[in-house]
Write a structure and sequence with these properties.
two-stranded antiparallel ribbon, about 15% strand, three-stranded mixed beta sheet, alpha+beta, 5 helices
């Protein structure tokens, strides 16, 4: 009988150990599954990073290809203007994007960047950009002030204002944006 008890105890111990091992196996399987999920996440992140890097490298190549000089020559409606890239980029969303080097620029036969816009209005806008917002309105009519404001919106210039003559008295206009 003691051999039966010993055998019975031995079998009980074996059953307990098997249950314990089954628990460890379940835990191990669960951890393996989590590791596999994490490996997939890492693989996806690496692929995403590689795709972003390729896109960035492509942007850099474009910017190198379409880089612009510091002194910019513009053909605005047939009239040539020269200024620094910094002057144009500083307060104009349009020029900041145009001169970013990301796009190929339309150029005339002399290599000037061509803009099919109003040259008379651009003359005043460029003066405004060069003088930190100071624009003498002595020779600006109310009509030209409206055109200048419309053009300033096209060029993405915020807080643009123009002073113009109105029956020999100065009037000011804050353009939209």
């Amino acid at each position: 009988p003691s051999e039966v008890v010993s055998a019975s105890t031995f079998i009980d111990d074996l059953c307990k150990k098997k249950l314990e091992l089954d628990g460890f196996k379940s835990e191990l399987d669960e951890r393996e599954m989590k590791c596999s999920e994490r490996e997939r996440e890492i693989d996806d992140a690496e692929a995403n990073t590689a795709a972003k890097r390729a896109k960035l490298d492509n942007e850099i190549r474009k910017m190198e290809k379409y880089s612009v000089p510091n002194i910019i020559k513009l053909n605005v409606g047939g009239r040539i203007f020269e200024t620094s890239a910094e002057t144009l980029r500083d307060k104009s969303e349009f020029f900041n994007g145009l001169l970013s080097g990301r796009w190929e620029l339309k150029q005339d036969i002399n290599g000037a960047i061509f803009l099919d816009r109003d040259p008379k209005a651009f003359e005043h806008i460029l003066r405004w950009l060069r003088t930190d917002g100071l624009l003498d309105g002595a020779n600006i009519s109310a009509f030209l002030a409206d055109v200048i404001c419309q053009e300033s919106e096209f060029y993405g210039i915020n807080n643009f204002s123009v002073t113009y003559n109105s029956n020999l008295s100065a009037a000011a206009r804050l353009c939209k944006k």
